[in-house]
Amino acid sequence: MDRGPGRARGGIRGRRGERLIESPRGPEDEADQPLSDRMCILTRKVKEEADLIRFVRSPEGLVVPDLARKLPGRGVWVSLDRAALAEAMRKRLFSRGFQAETTIPPDLPDMVAKLLRQNALSLLSLARKAGEAVSGFTKVEEMLGRGRAKLLFHGTDAAPDGCRKLDRLAEPGVERIVLFDRQELDLAFGRANVVHAAVAKGGLAEKLSAAVRRIETFEGLGGPSEDLKREDD
Questions:
Q1: How confident is the model at residue 92 (pLDDT cuts 50, 70, 90)?
Q2: Do 41 and 76 form a contact (C-beta atoms < 8 A)?
Q3: What are residue 153's DSSP bridge partners?
C-alpha cells in the first residue's frame, strides 16, 4: 500500500440519549455515555472514536487535546481534520460544547499535529526496541526479501533510486509510508542518518499503521491506501 496519503478507521460507539454537559467523570465513565458524546461539535455527525479528536477543558479553562482519550472530565469531540478543527475554533464551538467560557490556544491545530506525529514515532521506537523494526538499506532489504515486512518507511528526503529499489522487493500488502523526515526517523531509532526503515508484521505494525492513518487523515493527505505497486524494470 502507498502510504504518503491515507485513511483512518476503527473505534467504538456509545448509546443514544443525553446532551453534552460539563462533568467531573473520567473517560472510564464516558465510555458508557450516550451516542451524542461522540458527535463532532462542528459537523454534528456521529463518528467512531478513531475518526475524531477528543478535547477536555483544563481547570484554568484551556482547551487541551486528549489523543489517548484518558484525561478526566467531559470530552468534546471534533472530526479528525485540521480544517474542521480550525473552523470549530473560529466559531468558538468549544465554549458551547463545554457550556463554559473556554480559552483556545491559537496554535491548537499544530499542537494536535505534533502529538499525532509523536505518538506514531513512539510506536516506531517501541517496535525498534522490541526487535520488530530495522533501519538501513541492507537490513530493510533483508526483511523485505524474507517477506516479513508490513510497513516500509522512506524519509521524505530519501533518494528516489533507493526508494524504488526497496519498493520492488515489497510483496503485495506492504504499506509504504513517506511521512517523516530524516531527523524524526533518527530520533525514533536512536541513531543518525536513518533514511529507510521497515517494521515486521504483527501487533505493533498494526498499531503503527493506525497511528499513521490518523496523521494522514488529519492533514488531508489523501484517500484510502492502495497496495504497493512494483514498477517495471
A1: very high
A2: yes
A3: 177, 197
pLDDT mean over 23-28:
40
pTM for this prediction: 0.79
Task: Report the length, in residues, of the chain.
Answer: 233
> What distance lies between CA 139 and its chain's CA centroid?
26
**Cα angle vertex 194, ends 111, 154, to 5°?**
75
CA 37, CA 161: separation in Å to the nearest integer?
A: 49
pLDDT at 69 over 80: yes
Please name the residue that has the C-alpha cell 454534528. 44
Q: Which residue, 127, 105, 102, 101, is CA-closest to 114?
A: 105
Residue 77 neighbours by CB under 8 Å, 6+ apart: 37, 38, 39, 40, 41, 47, 52, 53, 54, 55
What string of H, E and C letters represents the secondary structure of the chain? Answer: CEECCCCCCCCCCCECCCCCCCCCCCHHHHCCCEHHHHEECCCCCECCHHHEEEEEECCCCEEEECCCCCCCCCCEEEECCHHHHHHHHHCCHHHHHHCCCCECCCCHHHHHHHHHHHHHHHHHHHHHHCCCEEECHHHHHHHHHCCCEEEEEECCCCCHHHHHHHHHHCCCCCEEECCCCHHHHHHHHCCCCCCEEEEECCHHHHHHHHHHHHHHHHHCCCCCCCCCCCCCC
